């Protein structure tokens, strides 16, 4: 009989344990590992607490912000900005994407210009937005919706370009009018790309929002990060960063779930 | 009432844009399909048989010549020219029933009648029990049955089939052949059936047209006046010599090998 402690047996067992950690198990394993690493690095006193705070002080900073009420307010303000910007940007993006995909004139007039805009990073727009809309809500909505719009437009347009010809042939030889073809064949056929674009748009909404809030804002999670820098409160910064990460992941899960419901015929 | 569905293809040639100028996909070809007839078009791959079919469907425009249906020119896809594709072309976002309803929508029927007629069309292909399933939940043979029901539901005068059973296994094919003949005899559309399977052509069609290598043209035209259902064994006297000849035409160098 083989010795159970021999490496030959231990390795498959470990592999089995990893393979079994599906669903929530795998991320939890990873988070637990990183948290432990973080704890030991800070507990060993390798770096000053003010530069690299311990998990415990980050937790306390989070609790502190929650108790004094800034966390809830900032969260609400930021979420409202991201949601409003995303709504405006995605509606515009899908609409214009459907138009540039379907109408040759609109495509000829807009595609080269919009393609040229795409490489400009959202952060570069913040100064312009502040001049145009001030440091209030306007500039945030502008930066977020602009970023979301470009990505959603691009993906929608691509989805329209790659509609399998056979669907259009089938639809036309079955006597569908152009309008019915557009509504019941073209849009569903492009839907997987549109949904992928919306998912990217959500991620970019958070990205560009924080960029906009970091410079020229008086509230929101990004502003609070900037404020924490002024007081060298790295513990608060870490708490806010973790919150942003968790928030983004949750929203992404939600969008993925909704997308799967919406384009139920698409695998994967 | 005179039967409709008379297709005339007169001196039609088709060219495509290639890297070095235009490429001829179909040499000038003439083909007349009598109303209610069942014609099989057979030829080596790339010979232009699908191109010819796409032209009759209105998907591609001929470079020269004319295609008419009952005297009027074909200028684009239209519901009285139905098409069955090898890849089924079902809409994955609709159920089987939804796909059939799509074909009926243009008739502007009341809701209840739309539903009844779509169900009846699915019953005809023995798929009433699967009406609520999405195409991706159906087997290949079932998908093609939905496609057949969908196309016949829109009441075509002409039915174009581009290697419709090419992706199916031999057993399913036999079932599909029987089903297709049954439905065709009920609806009596003019059928053009593109295939590269000689036996399939002989078992189904009233007439088999054999095309040459690219750029294609029609080499031979065999009328087949035999009762259905057919079998190569029972009607061997007539069918086997024709079969040999067609195989010889398709593969002049190696008469006994088949692709």
Taken in chain order, the helices and strands of chain B follow as: EEEHEEEHHHEHEHEEH
Secondary structure category of chain B: alpha/beta
Please give the largest β-sheet of chain A: none
- Number of structural units classed as domains of chain A: 1
The CATH superfamily label of chain A reads MetI-like
The number of distinct helices of chain A, counting runs of at least 4 residues, comes to 11
Backbone CA Rg of chain A = 24 Å
What is the helix fraction of residues of chain B, given as a range?
Answer: 25-40%
**Fraction in beta strands of chain A:** under 5%
CATH level 3 topology of chain A: MetI-like fold
**Annotated CATH architecture of the largest domain in chain B:** 3-Layer(aba) Sandwich
Number of helices of chain B: 7
Which ranges of chain A are low-confidence, i.e. pLDDT below 50, for 5 or more consecutive residues?
1-7
Layout of SSEs?
The complex is a heterodimer of chains A (268) and B (259).
Chain A: H1 7-20, H2 25-43, H3 55-67, H4 70-102, H5 104-117, H6 126-133, H7 137-161, H8 165-173, H9 178-214, H10 221-230, H11 234-262
Helix pairs in contact in A: 3-11, 4-5, 4-7, 4-9, 4-10, 6-7, 7-9, 8-9, 9-10, 9-11, 10-11
Chain B: E1 7-18, E2 21-33, E3 38-42, H1 49-57, E4 64-69, E5 72-73, E6 81-84, H2 96-104, H3 111-124, H4 140-153, E7 158-162, H5 170-187, E8 190-195, H6 198-204, E9 207-211, E10 218-223, H7 236-250
Parallel strand pairs in B: 3-8, 3-9, 6-7, 7-8
Antiparallel strand pairs in B: 1-2, 1-4, 4-5, 9-10
Protein architecture, described:
Chain A: It is found in: Cell membrane. The complex is a heterodimer of chains A (268) and B (259). Chain A is an all-alpha fold and 268 residues long. Chain A has helices at residues 7-20, 25-43, 55-67, 70-102, 104-117, 126-133, 137-161, 165-173, 178-214, 221-230, 234-262. In chain A, helix 4 packs antiparallel against helix 9 and helix 10 (221-230) packs antiparallel against helix 11. Chain A is elongated, with a radius of gyration of 24 Å. Chain A starts with 6 loop residues before the first helix and ends in a 6-residue tail after the last helix. Chain B has two domains: 7-80 and 157-249, P-loop containing nucleotide triphosphate hydrolases (Rossmann fold); 89-155, no CATH class. Chain B has helices at residues 49-57, 96-104, 111-124, 140-153, 170-187, 198-204, 236-250, and strands spanning 7-18, 21-33, 38-42, 64-69, 72-73, 81-84, 158-162, 190-195, 207-211, 218-223. In chain B, a hairpin with a 2-residue loop joins strand 4 (64-69) and strand 5 (72-73). The termini of chain B are far apart. The mean pLDDT of chain B is 92. The A-B interface holds A 166-167, 169-177, 180, 184-185, 188, 191, 263-267 and B 57-59, 76-79, 81-83, 85, 87, 89, 91-94, 102-103, 105-106, 134-136, 150-151, 154.
